[in-house]
Amino acid sequence: MSFSSRFSPGTFVLVLAVYLFYTGSVSEYDLATGSVVALVVSLIVGHWIIEDDRKAFSPRRWFYAVLYGLRYFLIEETKTHIDVAKRVFTLRANPGIVRVPLEVESDYGRVLVANSITNTPGTIVVDISDDGKWLYVHWIDVSTLDEREVKESIVAYFEDYARKIFD
């Protein structure tokens, strides 16, 4: 395999951005050492991390990723924190595990959906089916067992953005 077929510009940029974020600096030293680390990582595992660099640099995908992050952290998290706080004070809960259909195709999309559900108060993904088509979610308030309603209540928002960003 030649240098050009192994090197992934998308992985290079991603690793460099993470390196600079965690060092908290963009000094010449950090840019140089971060570039060396990013180059080594992108040469060794870059072709596994980002399969298509055109997708990684797509402005449309980045737009949806930023929109998702803003909505998730500012709106969805706030709503669910308030809901869980109410349930704690009123001792009102109907916990259980529900099976939720998942239509995201990419592994990254599935991880985004599963992590988003787990990070949202009141829900946690306890398992993903081997074929990646079902999530098993512990839900603080099992109000229905109908798969369409469960999907709409728990997954629909996350899955919609995961498809726009990763599929």
Helix-strand blueprint:
Blueprint: H1 3-6, H2 9-23, H3 28-49, H4 53-56, H5 59-90, E1 96-101, H6 107-119, E2 123-128, E3 134-139, H7 147-154, H8 156-166
Antiparallel strand pairs: 1-3, 2-3
Helix pairs in contact: 2-3, 5-8, 6-8
Description of the structure:
- By secondary structure, this protein is mostly helical.
- It folds into 2 domains: 48 residues, no CATH class; 109 residues, no CATH class.
- Helix content is 65%, strand content 11%.
- It has 8 helices and 3 strands; from the N terminus they run αααααβαββαα.
- It has a 3-stranded antiparallel sheet with strand order 1-3-2, covered by helices on one side.
- β2 and β3 form a beta hairpin.
- It is elongated and about 55 Å long.
- The model has no long low-confidence stretch (mean pLDDT 89).
Q: How would you describe this structure in keywords?
A:
3 strands; 167 residues; elongated; 65% helix; 2 domains; mainly alpha
Structural class by SSE content:
mainly alpha
Overall pLDDT metric: 89
Order of helices and strands: HHHHHEHEEHH
- The termini sit apart by 27 Å
- Strand content range: 5-15%
Low-confidence parts: none
- Total helices: the number is 8
Q: Name the strands of the widest sheet in spatial order.
A: 1-3-2
Shape: elongated
Give the domain tally: 2
Percent helix range: 55-70%
| CA gyration radius, whole angstroms | 19 Å
Largest sheet: 3 strands, antiparallel
Number of strands: 3
